Amino acid sequence: DVALDPYTSHGHDGLLEDGEILNDPTVEALVTQALVQAEAGCDILAPSDMMDG
Fold first, then answer.
1. Domain encompassing residue 41
2. CA angle at 13 for the pair 36 and 7, rounded to the nearest 5°
C-alpha cells in the first residue's frame, strides 16, 4: 500500500507544514515509498493515497 497516513500522527496522507498540506513534497515521498517497495520485490503496488499529481 503506497500511502503516508499510517505513518503520520494526524492520520492524513499529506505532509503538513503550519496546517497546510504540502502537495509536491508529499508526491515525492510517495514516489520514493513506491520505488523502495518495488526494489524490495513487491509484485503489486496499490496506491491508496489521494493527492493531486
1. 1-53
2. 60
Half-sphere exposure of residue 21: CA atoms within 13 angstroms, side-chain side: 15
The CA–CA distances, whole Å, from 21 to 24, 25, 36 equal 9, 9, 23
* Contact by Cβ (8 Å): 13, 3: yes
The number of distinct structural domains making up the chain is 1
How far apart CA 21 and CA 42 sit, in angstroms, is 28
pLDDT digits (tens, 9 = 90+) for 2-53: 988 888 787 778 888 998 989 999 999 999 999 999 999 999 998 887 776 6
